[in-house]
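I hope you will forgive my troubling you with a question about protein structure. The matter concerns a single protein, recorded as an amino acid sequence and a row of backbone structure tokens. Please examine both parts with care and let me know of anything in them that strikes you as inconsistent. Here, with my thanks, is the record as I have it:
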Amino acid sequence: MWGTDQFLPSSLLQSVGQSFALSAVVFFAVLHLRPQDAITFGAATQVTRLMGGEVGTAFVVTFIRVRSQIASNLLGLHVQIGDGQVAQRLQTYAAATAPAGNSATARGAAVLGSVVHSMAVTQGIIDAFVVIAALTAVTLIIIVTRRAAPPGPASHISPFARRVP
């Protein structure tokens, strides 16, 4: 099905992972649900389903943008005019872009700026992954520390338990 030169699309992995995660969360919540809260739970689940992705995407995109700007500023502080390594890097970029025409120095500076920008965006994405991992760890700790669900129709019954007639 999948050749060595192909990869599993990330959208497929995301849909499988979200399905497993969402099913587990809904099942966990249903086990702790009182019958009088069923309509409220249904409404909350629907709102979460509709708004969760949008809120999550907005948070991640905004977080990456802000962290990229901070990283760009911090990286830019280390790129100083007259520094030997910066001058050497600019000369290398200017030499690489010289066949494109005149103003090789300006193109070299543009390439250096592009490299700094891509490094800053990469740092912003790394920071976003760290925040998402931390939030996931906090969520798992909250789930693990919850008390057991009250016995109900979906409760686990051991196959070796004694049956009461």
The chain is about 70% helix and 0% strand.
